[in-house]
Queue: 2 jobs
Job 1
Amino acid sequence: MELCDLSALEMTQLLRQKKVSAVEILQSTLQRIGQVDGRSGALDQTATEEDKEKVHSFITLTADEAIKQASVVDAQLAAGKDPGVLAGVPFTVKDIFCVKDTPSTAASRILANFKSPYTATAVERMQGAGAVMVGKVNLDEFTYGSSTESSAFQPSTRNPWDTHHVPGGSSGGSAASVAAGEVPLSLGTDTAGSIRQPAAFCGVVGVKPTYGRVSRYGLIAFASSLDCPGPVARTVRDAAAMLQVISGADIHDSTAATVAVPNYLEKLEKGVKGMYIGLSPDYFRIVFPDPKTGDFQEKTLPKEIAEAVRHAADVLAKMGAEIVENVPMSNTRYGIPAYFVISRVEAASNLHRYDGVKYGLRTSLPYTDLRKMYKLSRNQGFGLQPKLRILMGMYVSAAQYSEQYYQRALRVRSMIRRDFETAFDPAGPYHLDALLTPTTPTTAFEMDAVYGDSVLMQYADQLTVPANHAGIPGLSLPGGLDQAELPIGIQLLGADYSEQKLFQIGRAYEMATENETWRQVKPKVLR
Amino acid sequence: MSEQITPEIFDHLVDLAALELDAKQAEYLRKQLNNQLKAIHELEAIPLDADIPISLHGVPFTAAESPTPREDEWHPYPNSKEILSQAPQLEDDYIVVPDIPHTTLK
């Protein structure tokens, strides 16, 4: 085991004991990146056969700046100063966050030359806690996708467990960089499952916090009522420690809630005795359109995934949790159709700012007037997925269709929220502490297998998107491996601001399963 | 179900969106839009009681959970040139854009 394979909290402990330096930890990290990552994503590149064996987490590696930051941490420790709770811990940042003087591309050609004049609050808080940013990692263009394949910066990220499979998305670079042992922590975003789905596909821990728990300041917006920054980590403890650092009110974001942030580590190992954990049949079947006919069909989940969730329930029951069966979550299936409407309307609105005037790409082609310049710049700068979202957003929010589509979707969102309110109501019939579900309907699919079918790709988020509609927190944990040795993710969903409870359950499961065979298997790129 | 987004509606949307697509892109995008609308139509089958409100956010924002709005005061940005330097075309700290489209009135 190398230094870079340690958890974030193990690293800080060794650092404080002066057994290692921050620079040594960083060197181990950079060595691992050199071994497994291959070339970084860039415009106008395509994947070669050699590329197909590497991970390609990064768009921008900031090694020189990272060495400076690590040296500062070492100097602070030598001077007897406290460098922060995540001192010397390397982390990556999804390239949808602005970081001052660093390219902030959103994986789009239209922002390829953009250097932000300021740093996102979540990144600033990580750096303030002594963590060392080693680079910006790849994602689906503007976060629009579930496989990272739509990035304009190719080769796009590949799954460390099998590089011929997708890492999930849109935070594919975040999840892959953590799974490959490049870093113990990454900052991602989750709009429909974009942290939890890649975390599940890459066998790591992913947290979508309650909407408003983490500031969105400096996050390049997709769907402003759904976007949530959150941690990707290898352990529940690390995820909790990172959320502790990035959470809380922010003068720059009026939607960052003023609700006090509890000490997430304090009760982490208190167990689950007496907790009520629900299972819902509505999370064990999926409804999706047939790729050829477009007709909707209902299927039960793959056996291995359903069994992994059932196994987790059994493990928690043995530890004293009460498992509540048959919790109705009947509006789950409407999450994707409602998301198709709400997210597109918000995306279209957010993407109007890219016009070749203030920043970003302005076309190099000849133009006659302002309107023509807008069109050429936007056509050249945006890939197919942003264009698709702009067009759909404009269509469903048009005055003549708004009631039929947009307003209806917003009311369906209320119904999805009500399902959760009923399940978690302490005075209600189920009074759950958490709902236990699969994170995804499949394990990581092969590269190119779904890309291009925007409908089927969206249905990869069917089990994660309800939490975004409802605003509630969700935690995805590794829950086993399928026959192809690809990770299976299990998900815990809780009431608003119940992250502490989800961490407690997740940690209990992690401890109870630490000696299971599948936990000893490493991603292929590390074998 | 017939295609809801016809080539004519599609072209109108493309113009409103300030895009300019080649034929291959247009064909792909229009097909995907119509496929997505099929999924969206599932919403129409849901019985919605009259009392179900619109939710703009999942988590309700009450005064107790929201920060007090800061005063609406002007503060100079410490380094405005840094922001301006991102503009594709600049002249004496002004962002330069091409002429607006002109229409000759009859």
Note: Chain A touches chain B through 80 residues (CB under 8 Å).
Job 2
Amino acid sequence: MIEAWITGIGLVTALGPDRETTWTRLLAGESGIRRLTLFDTTGYRTHIAAQIHDLALAYSPAPTALRRHTSRASQLALRAAAEALADAGLDAAAERSRPWAVAFGGGTAGLFEAEAYVERRLRGGVKVRALHEFLEVPQDSPTDRVAERHALSGPRLTVTTACSSSTIAVGLAAQLVREGEAEVALAGGSDTLCRLTFAGFNSLRVVDPEPAKPFDRRRKGMSLGEGAAVLVVESSERARRRGARPYARVLGYGVTNDAFHMTQPEPSGTAWERTVRAALADAGVTSSDIGYINAHGTATEQNDAAECAAYARVLGSRLAEVPISSIKGALGHCLCGAGGVEAAVTALALARSTLPPTAGFAEADPACPVDPVPGRGRAWTPTVALSASFAFGGNSAALVLGGAP
Amino acid sequence: MSLGVWVRSLGAVTAAGVGVEALRQALLDPTWRPALGIERPDGEPLPVATCSSFSPRDHLPPMVARRLDRPARLLVVAAREALAALDELDDEARQRVGVATGTWTAGTQALFEVLRTVFLVSPEEAPPAQFPATVANAPAGQLGILEHLGGPNLTFAEKQVGGLRALAEAARVLRGRRADAMVAGGVDEAHWLNAESYSRLGVTAQGSRPGMTLGEGAAVLLLRPQSVDALAQLAGWASASTPCPPYRYPDTSDAVVTAARQALAAAGATAGDVDLVVSFANGMSNLAALETHALDELLGARRPAALTVSTRLGEGAFSAALRAMVATLAVAGRLDHAWTPDHLAAAGFPPLSGRARCALVCGVAGGGSAVALVITAP
């Protein structure tokens, strides 16, 4: 049976421009949430985010023609993809044929750039002409850019289900590989900060003016973030042939809809329980196999409580025994890129026998009676891990990852 | 390989009107053309094929309509037409019904409203009721909430082929037994900002300038893994891509040909079985040339019937799903003639005449992603 193995990982986050920097600082309990400078936040209710400050966006070795008119979101995706391919030991250019798939979560894409055009158009009227900022508004633009850069000719999917987008994308990529439609798939996603999401989430009063504190009694909401993750999902046959050692295996995924409310989670946890059970069934494992959960953990009052309620339903008396951490206190909520980043971190946790902590957590909340791995990274014995995402529209998804064989 | 996915029923809201029958009547009239036009706040109207006759009040209770934005209204009305074919579903059965949509433009009005407020009023005044509708999956999410559909709820962004992608991935969901039925298709909304921007890029038809016409609407196919009462079989699907910038069509037809061949193989068919081609041309000359080249490579000298949808009802992710819908009508014997694409007529492809048995529905998006479906008589 063909398995879907994760053989390469690329990360660009507020904690670092690459996988190893991000991982090291994440385990140290650091947070990348600080003053937002990407645009002027005068007039906004909050002023911090997990912005990528230290990344020179000129990725290499992309040709100039490709770099022109390439959005911030695409540039993050391109950088993560290049790192992932190099990490996997795959030189796309050296392959004779590259019918590899790309499956990304599609977020704001070129909206950050387009906002500048919209503002000029609103203020300047119909005579405003510049349009290059509009070119990457379609949400599949980063997907296209990565395929273009690496000359990939396989299936190309862009899932846009808000905050669960790239979790589903990784699941679909694994399915493509398992079903033999592609031997290699680049999976994940990228999303960047922009005025729309910053103003929008602030308008919903779900952004904490201070850095997010998932599962903490004092939590007041999320911190927005930006980032990109690309996972090389490769067929086990191909990986074995070339002697590649995987970080982890994608055992299965589940995707369901709460059918409850556009922005509110179903509070009893029954809807998200269904998602997790669908993922476990697809993976062929049971709840007793779960050894770690990388939670959605946005740090909103409602999300964290509903999420813990769902895990209580799935894990029963094991709830307090299974470490459940959220990396959004460190990396912010990267929205459509979040699931990819979290899947990547979960794969690293499996490969390196170390769990990422929940940055910002200090005081336990009776509504969230879980072990959130406070402080710094923690050693563990890898078993099976879950990476979950819950989104606007009731779109819920969970990945089940297993350790390397 | 037979995939065992069938089309049970259809639903549509288009520039031709509300309902599949309005669409069918328009297709049967060779002279039918939509009234084009979308208002701008400070400029001349732009030619867009909008659903101008669609009034939510005629189809949705006021309390429901008020919490939906326009694309959600379009999708819900189309989906309800398709879902009416199913027997009454209890809550447990609804948990096993999913949604898959493709969209290119859903959420534009909400996005514009939020940004207008941010830039011209104050970020603090950004409207919280509008913000959730800025996500492209809002129509599918709202449909799931309204109809209590708890199965996988997927939205795909793939520009002009989003509707075909949604159908293909809905079929994958069914094949993987993740749902018992899927409401699948596409939805787009018309907005002057999109129309103006694409007009300035020079890709839309305007005056004597050839090009595409943006469209608005929703097209839904209800897919099930049972053949009972089916209109058609979604017998095969595949996708491939040609690397190119996101805002350009590819220079070659390779991806379309590859996807079509793989879809035919998945359907257990060959190019020789195809007796209907649903054109993906949209009025842009380079896309018409790409399609003609692809069909030459795929079919050789064979010339099956051809019909067009997107050149009149407008381009968009919804339009891709409409093409699959029209193919379904043709193989179900509910459409025996339709609009003929000029470029394929010039290349010797005859108009549809009588019932088709095997329809090939392809599409390619800016950026180079191609999807192909094979839809056959049940």
Note: Residues 233-376 of chain B form a domain with the Peroxisomal Thiolase; Chain A, domain 1 fold (CATH 3.40.47.10).
